[in-house]
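Explain the record.
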Amino acid sequence: MYLNKSDLKKACAELLADFNGVLSWKWDKNFGAFLAEFSAEIQDEVRSILQRHLSQEWDRKTIRSAPDTLKTGAGEFGDLRSGQLLFTSDPESNVLILAAWWPWRDGEVVSVRIASPAEESPDSEKIGIFERLKDLFGR
């Protein structure tokens, strides 16, 4: 589970502001993330901004050695394929910010999704199972 749109916007306000005039963001409700798609021609500029704000960069090989807290928090964003990157804030910081860098197969477009895992309550796993059972049986 990731932060909602409002909380995420507050948590990464400076990062999003640095993209003003470079990228346009929309909300991706499927991933609970801000999404920008851009031409590969500006990928160096976009990558530079991400690196200024998110101190760690992971690829398919290095993510294996990431701290468990980061791998857990990254969730589906941590399942990297060739060419994909994950930029993260320090895993020990108060709020973990993730930026998933996903080049498209055509090599002309790159997508970046910015998300942050929400703190889970002790009962969240139980609620998740209960909700799934309700979905199975049609509430």
Remarks:
- The first helix runs from residue 5 to 11.
- The radius of gyration is 16 Å.
- DSSP finds five helices and six strands in the chain.
